[in-house]
Design a protein that fits this description.
Two copies of one chain form a homodimer.
Chain A lengths: L10 H18 L3 E4 L2 H8 L14 E5 L5 E5 L3 H4 L6 E5 L9 H13 L3 E4 L11 H10 L4 E4 L1 H9 L3 H19 L1 H4 L6 H14 L4 E11 L18 E11 L2 E2 L2 E6 L5 H20 L6 H13 L12 E3 L6 E4 L13 E4 L2 E4 L3 E4 L2 E6 L2 E4 L12
């Protein structure tokens, strides 16, 4: 693993993100973006805290079409927000169910509403509004005249393409994830309760420098697993099990998201074949991933390899996705997504297939798209199913 | 620590939760509740997965006024949902931005809309709608005639009072958290980068049986910390630092949420005094916490102790809150919350104060309310600031 990059970003990075958003806003006649979600508030401000785990308090960032973003946040976050590049920080004593930031938002946005201005709120695919729906409905009433449009396209366009500083963080956490998987044979053994395998993996990733392992799912069962999103049980690992761990570990707020498959003791033929098919599907994806190709193309390239073996059409919905401040981000490597791939997108390639009696297998690698093609951020999985 | 309780819940627990919700719905003339958030979907179904970390796919659970809940979910969750007590599971191939569950929701709710029925959606304090806002707006159009009311009160009333099975899980994770804090003097030392203190704490909690440590914040600074929600820096712990760690560790989907304060090497007088004041405020809270008292009463009891020392009115908004499947839940120990305390509520007592030059200190314990008063779930903090 390479040494850790710097934490945080220089102010210039936030200024550049803001300027890009403002250029798109200006094109669309928007006078600002109202943001409520952790990833978007952090993207434009640098405000980084696990406190979002508490659903109690709403947080708002308004990105105007000119000038710096304005934070409208609970007082408990003021000290941390003052460490960012944001100057205009307006706080209230939260929680305050009778007025959780609404008066402050009306102060800020009332003048825009009075002249019938347009602002954007992300309302589209993969977004959500992180504030009570009732408060949003009240706000619409208090800001009658304000034209609120869906601004998902602006946020999506910016966040899909990563800066070199973001890529450095992603490379670092992918390296930690890869080293953690490389250490698995030392920490996993037949007879181990699968929930203890999870604990051992988390502890190893932390030891190797991960800040956290917010996401860890997997499966283990005789001759293949049946489900890829379950929490682990106390069932001991047994000879002949196929085990998969899929991790989203974080460093400085950026995720890796990839998995590895192992056979415990010995590997059955069907699982070996499934593994190698997925490995080849990933190879095909790696070869096809270049700027200008479309997400749907990349999907079909991988799917055509899988189709030669998969007879049941296991449905995980897509074969990869964007990666960054969230475990999954835009775009989707799916038939419905015609987004053109761009340099410096960070993606997962995640082919999966069904085989045998309802078994499923998933592979995953993380890449950054460069001008000449895919650069792996993860240490490439071996071509044949490894046996522990 | 006591041995781990059983994972999961018997079907009877979900049936009882559903029946209680249905009784409240019937009183209010509601024909169902539409739920979108992890905690509420899990509360009524038992569907438990970290996959919610991916914001890509919406998940829906409809709790009708009679009969079992109906799951409308991405196909990727079908296998796991079939392991729960839910029978009616309707899936689609997600993500599918053109129709991410909306057609299935229209099939389900269309007949209710046609006769102008009323259903509930949580829209109030501490809730949010976990689906794209644009899709919700489309759904309202597709279900014209459906009367959608805020059902926060129903969800809140149910979730605030815990079953004995829930309390057993909460006691278990509070025990793991307490044991982790007890081990701190062995894993923390002067000169340690504070981010490594965080890693060491997480690893210890996992070693002692936590499933995960999704929340860990803290502060450390000469003579007192200034902020209680920041991620850690690489600054080494120094003699004279006051250090606080606040953790939300989980076991089987239930959280502890408490903190501990330590002095590194030596403790200054002001911090000692702040510590003991908060310890006494917690004692006052413990004595006053009994069924029938109001949240606001408990707040004032603790605040009156704090007021004797706090000259700056540090504003974290409240002095405790509910605890369960989320790090913070209803109710709030705050002047605005007149909720009457009930037996089997699980709460945090979290007095805080400002002192000196912008320093802040926070204490926290977790309790369950019994008929005769507070039962501690955490091992009570010592009365005087401990020195490592």
């Amino acid at each position: 693993m390479s040494p850790a990059p710097e934490r945080g970003f220089p102010d210039a990075e936030f200024a550049a993100r803001t300027a890009r958003a403002q250029a798109l806003m200006a094109q669309q006649g928007l006078e600002g973006l109202l943001l409520t979600r952790e990833s978007e508030v952090r993207y434009f401000s640098g405000f980084h805290t696990l406190f979002w785990q508490s659903p109690t308090r709403p947080w708002f960032l308004f990105v105007p079409v000119e000038g710096k973003p304005v934070a409208v946040i609970p007082e408990i976050g003021a000290a941390l927000m003052r460490q960012t590049w944001i100057d205009d920080i307006r706080t209230w004593s939260a929680p305050s169910p009778a007025d959780d930031g609404l008066s402050l938002l009306v102060d800020l946005l009332g003048p825009l509403a009075a002249r019938g201005a347009s602002i954007g709120v992300p309302k589209g695919h993969e977004t959500s509004l992180r504030m009570p729906l009732g408060d949003y409905e009240r706000l619409l009433g208090l800001l009658a005249g304000l034209d609120i449009r869906d601004s998902t396209d602006i946020i999506r366009a910016l966040r899909m393409v990563k800066s070199e500083a973001e890529i450095a963080k992603l490379r670092h956490i992918c390296g930690i994830g890869s080293a953690s998987f490389a250490a698995l044979p030392e920490i996993v053994h037949e007879g181990q309760a699968f929930e203890d395998t999870f604990r051992a993996f988390r502890r190893k990733a932390l030891e190797l420098g991960a800040d956290d392992v917010p996401y860890l799912v997997g499966g283990a069962d005789k001759g293949g697993y049946h489900d890829v999103i379950s929490p682990p049980t106390a069932r001991p690992l047994q000879k002949g099990d196929i085990m998969m761990l899929d991790t989203g570990a974080t460093w400085d707020g950026y995720f890796c998201d990839f998995d590895r498959n192992f056979a415990i003791g010995r590997a059955d033929d069907a699982s070996r074949r499934a593994y190698h098919t997925l490995w080849r599907a990933t190879e095909a994806g790696l070869a096809a991933a270049r700027p200008g190709a479309r997400c749907a193309d990349l999907f079909h390239v991988m799917q055509s390899v899988i189709d030669r073996m998969d007879d049941q059409g296991g449905d995980v919905g897509r074969l990869g996705h964007g990666l960054g401040m969230q475990l999954t981000e835009w775009p989707s490597l799916a038939a419905f997504d015609n987004t053109a791939l761009q340099e410096n997108m960070v993606l997962t390639l995640e082919p999966s297939l069904s085989y045998g009696d309802g078994r499923i297998m998933v592979h995953e690698e993380n890449i950054v798209l460069r001008a000449d093609g895919a650069e792996l951020l993860t240490t490439r999985a071996v071509p044949e199913l490894p046996v522990i």
